[in-house]
Amino acid sequence: MHEVFPGHVTSPAGFLAAGVHAGIKRSREDLAIIASDRQAAAAAVFTTNRVKAAPVLYTRRALRGNRLQAVVANSGNANACTGPTGYRDARTMAGDTARALGLKATRVAVASTGVIGVPLPMDQVRPGIAAAVHALSVEGGPGAARAIMTTDTFPKTLAARFSAHGTEYIVGGMAKGSGMIHPQMATTLGFITTDACLDGTDLAGCLRQAIDVSFNMITVDGDTSTNDMVLVMANGAAGGPRLLPGTPELEAFGQALEAVCTGLAKQVVMDGEGATKFMEVKVGGAASVKDARKAARAVAGSSLVKTAVFGADGNWGRILCALGYSGARFRPERVNLAICGLKVVSGGCPVNYSESHLKELLSSREILVSVHLGAGEAEAISWGCDLTYEYVRINGSYRS
Amino acid sequence: MHEVFPGHVTSPAGFLAAGVHAGIKRSREDLAIIASDRQAAAAAVFTTNRVKAAPVLYTRRALRGNRLQAVVANSGNANACTGPTGYRDARTMAGDTARALGLKATRVAVASTGVIGVPLPMDQVRPGIAAAVHALSVEGGPGAARAIMTTDTFPKTLAARFSAHGTEYIVGGMAKGSGMIHPQMATTLGFITTDACLDGTDLAGCLRQAIDVSFNMITVDGDTSTNDMVLVMANGAAGGPRLLPGTPELEAFGQALEAVCTGLAKQVVMDGEGATKFMEVKVGGAASVKDARKAARAVAGSSLVKTAVFGADGNWGRILCALGYSGARFRPERVNLAICGLKVVSGGCPVNYSESHLKELLSSREILVSVHLGAGEAEAISWGCDLTYEYVRINGSYRS
After folding, report:
1. HSE-up (13 A, CA, CB side) for residue B248
2. What is the pLDDT of residue B181?
């Protein structure tokens, strides 16, 4: 059992954080550091994009030992497609952070987000790192969350607490959106902390499970970024014994982690670029979980479904169309569909319903699409948002 | 050798066509018939969407004999997700057309396009078929092309002529767009006629080849429709012997067919919903043709690339990002990229170029993206359009 609450990466014991304005962006916080007061087990999932940003390459290597003590992250510049200079810059970010904290450079992860193909302004970044280390505090969680924002309109943070062995543990997290969001392994940047004590391998296993039902089930625009990373550190500062595989305690941790990941992922979608509406797509009755996931993501990702949701147009044919090309196995004549609780399709054909009532339901800010494929027992949920004029405006002039 | 010219489905000998206003739509032509004066070899490719419209199911069955003599098609209603009634209606459309023309019903193909999930208004459709049969003429090509339009802003027609055995042959075609366009087997509706004489199997082989480099290489919005179909009829009315496999004559036919398919496919993209710009993505240096195709389509299909093109924003990082998640094999540090002839990336890193010059180039109506992956010799070309406010407007209120 766990309880979700509006906490931060500094909610778990032993974590400090800070967000500062280094000057990569004109006027907003753009550099964050999260640091633990002791070494932590660490695990991460990375973008599957073949073009990987320098910090992704660097951090993947740093994580070979499954131990970290700090993360440094910047927004405003992705440090991607920047060649050997980019890799050197990522290493310098880690080195500066490590030196200021008195750590080995391999204990520091690096992440970047922002525009691709422009060298990092290291003359801003390096003093920024010094300032951020200086500013580290237990109150620094919200500032760190703000400092990784790009086109986000609000910072994304969440925490959960659970008890095991009579000890209370906390999982805290932060993430950023809000374009280039598509479920294909760890979309977006996410950083999660916990004061529970876990082995690195167990932590990695829990993270993979949590990501599969959270960050991998959201979509904003179908583009998988070069910089995606979700990283978790477990420092054991809460005390208590190590959480062991196969125990209810590790299970409880896994559920708390899943709750934080799911909550953050939903915040990312709610803040999707230009989004005015949040869409939850539940698919049941699938032949396999894989099919259910494919079907749910195809509906949440369809440009035509997304524009119909934006326009509150009950054009459910587009939902069936998306199911049809999703790759999920089913027979069209067995599909049932409800929108915001109103049944519109039964056995693949429309039922009698009030079009004006459907329009009214589609005018709310949260749209629930429930599909039953009639092909089995498996289920999945995906989250998405509408496609709006504002998405086009933001991305037609991203760098201007 | 062939020559492309602005012809129609009635340009080849022995074909008549007509487009009439049956009343499915408020005020525009909405029903087309194409008929040959003799039986024709026929072949078609259909949507891979699991949810197939009734006319797709009907026509697939009718084509088992590889012989057709007429096609009846309507716009304004897709006759999809309409259950057994829908199939009965498709059969009635074929039956009515066949009777009026004095043919067997199995010699008539049926196609529909428009809104999903609404029964066909057969009280309008049946008199419409009678009127269209009555109106059939060699001048009917343009009207037939208009009658299959949905959100298209102009009718799409093209023809090509070639000579073989001292006989001149013509291939004529028409197609419609302009949403739910994504390369996954025969996107959109397309009807092609020729007065050459071919075996049905050879015709099917030529069509598959032509589709692979034309209709399967375009994308508007990533949605594969329930009604897609490209159908070709070869009636042999030009005289001359049968074009045989492995001969230069069949090769010449294949090239003319490809030219018509490619031209029509490009027209579909140019008229993409809300599109203001046409984008050609050439990928070379790929490890395989499959890789080249994947890479080209990912770039042409990326929402972020499409909005950047709309905004004339030279954000080439998004192009590399799309290549990276395309599934094509390559090493990022070997990629070269030019936009409208201006080299911007060499060896995976930006070169010196004038940002204002790039912006100027991106302000033209035709955008050429040239990628060299540095992984082999294979090439492919894909075509797409920009993503605009107008796309959102059209699809937010499609049925209103």
Report:
1. 7
2. 54
Smallest CA-to-CA distance from B340 within B318, B319, B364, B308 is with B364
Of A375, A275, A277, the residue nearest A326 (C-alpha): A375
Instruction: Name the nearest CA neighbour of B262 among B326, B202, B196, B209.
Output: B209
Report yes or no: B85 and B118 within 8 Å, Cβ to Cβ.
Answer: no
How far is the CA of B251 from the CAs of A52, A148, B2, B192, B254, in angstroms? 44, 58, 11, 17, 5
- Please count the other Cβ atoms lying within 10 Å of the Cβ belonging to residue A275: 25
Residue pair A145/A271 in contact by the 8 Å Cβ criterion: no
Q: Which residues of B touch A392 (CB under 8 A)?
A: 307, 310, 387-389, 391-392
Other C-beta atoms lying within 10 Å of the C-beta of residue B4: 15
In which residue ranges of chain B is pLDDT below 50? 183-187, 400
Rounded distance between C-alpha atoms, residue A27 and residue B214, angstroms: 48
pLDDT category, A359, cuts 50, 70, 90? very high
Per-residue pLDDT band for A400 (boundaries 50, 70, 90) equals very low
Arithmetic mean of pLDDT, A326-348: 94
Q: Of the given ranges (A35-39, A290-294, B99-103, B309-313), which has the lowest mean pLDDT? A: B309-313
Cα–Cα distance list, A342 to A267, A297, A339, A358, B150 (Å): 26, 21, 5, 7, 29
Which neighbouring-strand residues pair with B162?
B2, B169
Indicate yes or no: pTM above 0.90.
no
A160, A264 contact by CB (below 8 A): no
A384: β partners: A279
* Chain B residue with minimum CA distance to A396: B311
Report which of residues A165 and A183 the model is more confident about.
A165
Residue B15 and residue B296: Cα distance in Å, rounded?
A: 37
Distance separating alpha carbons of residues B184 and A220, to the nearest angstrom: 22
Q: Give the percent of chain A with pLDDT over 70.
A: 95
- Token reading at B211: 């589709």
Which of A52, A317, A326 is facing B80, going by the closest CB pair?
A317
Cα B116 to Cα B283: distance, rounded to the nearest angstrom: 36
- Residue B168: C-alpha distances to residues A360, B7, B38, B40, B249 (Å): 60, 15, 19, 18, 11
Percent of all residues in chain A with a pLDDT value above 90, rounded to a whole number: 68
- Nearest residue of B to residue A347, measured between CA atoms: B83
Q: Is the ipTM of this complex over 0.95?
A: no
Scored b (16 or more CB within 10 A) or e, B40-58 reads: bbbbbbbbebbbbbbbbbb
Half-sphere exposure of B365 (CA within 13 A, CB side): 5
d(CA A51, CA A29): 27
Residue that is written with structure tokens 């080995």 in the block? A104
pLDDT higher than threshold 60 for residue A184: no
Cβ–Cβ of A82/B349 closer than 8 Å? Answer: yes
**Cα B69 to the center of its chain, rounded Å:** 21
DSSP β-ladder status, B2-5 and A336-339: unpaired
pLDDT tens track for B130-166 = 999 999 999 999 999 999 998 888 999 999 999 998 9
- Whether B117 sits inside 8 A of A180 (CB atoms) is no
